[in-house]
Amino acid sequence: MARYGILTAGGDCPGLNAVIRGIVLDGQTEHGDEYVGYLDGYKGLVYGNVMELDRSTVRGISKEGGTVLGTSRHGPYKEPNGPDTIKKSMRHLGVDGVIAIGGDGTMAAANRLYEDGIPIIGVPKTIDNDLEATDYTFGFNTAVEIATEAADRLRTTGNSHKRCMVLEVMGRHAGWIALYAGMAAGAHAILIPEQPESLEQICAWVQSVTDRGRAPMVVVAEGFTFPDMDEAYSDKGLDEFGRPRLGGIGEILAPLIQEKTGIETRATVLGYIQRGGVPSAFDRVLGTRLGFAVPDLINDGGWGQMLALRGNDIVRVPFSEAAGKTKNVPLDMYEEARRVFG
Ligand code: F6P
Questions:
Q1: Residue bearing the CA closest to ligand 1, atom 13
Q2: How far apart are CA 221 and CA 241, in angstroms?
């Protein structure tokens, strides 16, 4: 019998609890393994803060948002001698290996820990859907549902007032949430980081919608830039990984549209609503399947690898192949949607 530690790191996302439950159920029943949960991401791994995880602790949690383990963006290399401290703490707690559930930052840190001799595997997550190694990440589907509902709601109030409504969604430097939610809600313009658009072009789309007697709906990704911007808009400083905190471009864009077209325009920044609450059925199923695949991966000695979804199959990919590679919206896919803007 072996004992493993599970951690969730980086931004939370719907479906994390389904993975935790899947690992513990499959690992206990199929392999007779024991599990602990590290609290608050890599911080728990470094300081040895754990909770016991068994069938009864994970009962019914797959439908709950967030993560029962807590999370943080605290990197394991923030502490001097991080890997040595972790090894000591694992020995002390009798933990034989680590399962890190997280996004690109978490996977990059896991890769480094693996190279420093810590047995660790990864499960990818992010609402942004921007990890190259996997077709979809759990959390994305729920975020798109929430953003679509928000856009639908904004359209009814926009129609009543004949206003242009701007909805800003998350996604960092990838436009997946904006593209999917914008297409689902029939937005008249979708603005993504992968494709700068000029204010003139955006206003031309908005004006043509108004000229047809409709209320324009614009969905903008937080990482969108105008052609003359070198970097995405950020006024909130840096996160723990030193990356700019994004958000706010919607509030820059709305007054510009109003000023240039004379059409009354309002902005809504959806923010963390996209990450909270109940996961969709799709994300619960994907999270559960990834969880079920973890004990087998460990059993096969798959340290240094992460799981990924390819088509409908759960596959294994070495960290070294996956870490640091962003999956952006292909421009031909954006072009498909762009043809009918305005
Ligand atoms: O990566 C997920 C995400 O929600 C991004 O879409 C967003 O830019 C970022 O996390 C926000 O991070 P934080 O929780 O650190 O504010």
A1: 11
A2: 21
Q: Does the CB atom of residue 169 touch ligand 1 within 6 A? A: no
pLDDT on residue 240: 81
Whether the CB of 246 sits within 6 Å of ligand 1: yes
Residue among 162, 163, 268, 173 at smallest CA distance from 219 = 268
Check residue 323 and give its pLDDT.
79
**pLDDT value at residue 79:** 81
List of the chain residues with pLDDT < 70: none
Q: Which pLDDT tens digit goes with each residue over 6-39?
A: 999 999 999 999 999 999 999 999 999 999 999 9
The residue annotated as part of the active site, out of 12, 33, 104, 128, is 128
Q: How many CB atoms lie within 10 A of CB 86?
A: 26
Q: Are 263 and 207 in contact (CB under 8 A)?
A: yes
Instruction: Find out whether 102 and 125 touch, Cβ atoms under 8 Å.
Output: yes
* Ligand 1 centre distance from Cα of residue 295 (Å): 29
Ligand 1 closest atom vs CA 274: 4
CATH code linked to domain 141-276:
3.40.50.460
The DSSP code sequence of 140-192 is HHHHHHHHHHHHHHHHHHHHHHT-EEEEEE--TT--HHHHHHHHHTT-SEEE-
Q: Which of 177, 181, 211 is nearest to 193 (CA)?
A: 177
Q: What is the pLDDT of residue 112?
A: 95
- How many other CB atoms are there within 10 angstroms of residue 272's CB atom? 11
What does the pLDDT read at residue 168? Answer: 98
* Of the candidates 99, 142, 103, the residue with the CA atom closest to the CA atom of residue 295: 99
Q: Indicate if 128 belongs to the active site.
A: yes
Q: What pLDDT is attached to residue 222? A: 98
For residue 158 and ligand 1, the question of a CB distance below 6 A is answered with: no
Top-level CATH class of 3-138+279-322? alpha beta
Matching fold, domains 3-138+279-322 and 141-276: yes
Domain coordinates of the chain in residue numbers?
3-138+279-322, 141-276
